[in-house]
Amino acid sequence: MNPNEKKVSVISLGCDKNTVDSEKILYLLKDAGFEICSDLKQANIIIVNTCAFILSAQQESINKILEVEQLKQNNLEKLIVCGCLVSRNGEELRDNIGSIDLLVDINDYDKIAQLIYELYDEEFKHNCLYLAPARILSTPNHYAYVKIADGCDNFCTYCTIPKIRGRFRSRTIEDITQECKALALNGVKEIIIVAQDVTRYGVDLYQKYALLDLLKELIKIDDIKWIRLHYCYPELISDDLINFINTENKMCKYIDIPLQHVSDKILKRMNRKSNYESIIKLINNIKSQSNKISIRSSFIVGFPDETHQDFILLKNFLKEFKLDNVGIFEYSREENTPAYNLPHQVNKLTKKLRRKKLYNIQKNIVKQNNQNLVGQTILCVCDEITDNSVIMRSEYNSPDVDTVIYCDVIDGLKQGSFYEVKIIGYYEYDLLGQIIKRSE
């Protein structure tokens, strides 16, 4: 087999941590001589990087595999499946979807080119160069997700990640810094730090929480303009970290805190380490800083034994503290998790209604927040330029999940450049802006 004759496509499902894995797979394949192909119909080899966090994600992954399977009637020669679904349900996939040619474990991504050669009964002699950043971005060139650790040690009772991904494992500060420097040299201006729990970073390597040590190195990279934090568990967010976000110019005034609930009873049943009092103290601390820090969070409704009183407490919390961006999810009962066997499971209709009520509350909060922004001028990055409009985003919003700002197209716009934008109106979730001038 001549790899130069084979076209490869990668489909990435699930979270942004999976996105990073897919980008590294793309690099390894291109380095081994394969041609990267974005058109699935032209691909000879398709790799589906799956998600298995909850039942709906598993079903989406299976549906995508079955969809890709149909392409074997055309150019597709090899269907390869990797990711969390392989770690969680690999045997079932092998037994029930005969068209899968190869299952790749999450710990074997560095061998993926060799495994493909073996599918074609060819000897693999290539030595990967591993040139930093050793990935091919699937995001726009001006921002990139950087995974600083894998696995998780929190063992929330509803979560399958520790069993799928293993214990928490940090990368070294030197390795992460080298990757970010290489990304900056390739045009990346915004680094989005991700892990299952970024606040735990370093405890396994350095016997201390070392996120601040890492950030102090990353802000030294000249061409990086914004650094954003995702998935900071509330109990490990220190006053020093909040102060660093508040005072350091390169730190986006943004923090993603997956609170999941505010009822002490429910938090304890979830095996979360925070409680109502500590959460209120944390949110008040963040909101008291001299600069506005945008807070994103996620909540689960319908967890086993969530009573009406527990739900009212959560509802009132949202009304009072008016978080900027919130994801609301119905509890998904996952096999092989401690919560699966908990008594007093909440019925589906109740979960659906509770989610809808919280969704409507948050929708009104976003509307109020957007109203308050009208007339202000804020620094934005140009994420996308279309024929009819420009999509801008401020430091207060993360790509793909938060509010964006729509502006009219003007001459000279450049994707990835920064502009001062005056907010002149709002939609239900998004904003309408007027570009004032370029700001670099």
Write the layout of secondary structure elements.
Elements: E1 7-12, H1 16-31, E2 35-36, E3 45-50, H2 55-69, E4 78-83, H3 84-96, E5 102-104, H4 112-119, E6 143-147, E7 149-150, H5 161-165, E8 169-170, H6 173-185, E9 190-194, H7 203-206, H8 211-218, E10 226-229, H9 239-247, E11 251-260, H10 264-269, H11 276-287, E12 294-301, H12 308-321, E13 325-330, H13 348-373, E14 377-385, E15 390-394, E16 405-407, E17 418-426, E18 431-438
Parallel strand pairs: 1-2, 1-3, 3-4, 4-5, 6-9, 9-10, 10-11, 11-12, 12-13, 16-18
Antiparallel strand pairs: 7-8, 14-15, 14-17, 15-16, 17-18
Helix pairs in contact: 6-8, 12-13
Characterise the protein shown here.
- With 440 residues, the protein is an alpha/beta fold.
- Helix 12 links the parallel strand 12 and strand 13.
- Helices cover 34% and strands 22% of the residues.
- Helix 6 packs parallel to helix 8 (211-218) and helix 12 runs parallel beside helix 13.
- A six-stranded parallel β-sheet has the order 6-9-10-11-12-13. The protein has a five-stranded parallel β-sheet with strand order 2-1-3-4-5, sandwiched between helices.
- The termini are far apart.
Explain briefly what this protein structure is.
The protein has 13 helices and 18 strands. With 440 residues, the chain is of the alpha/beta class.
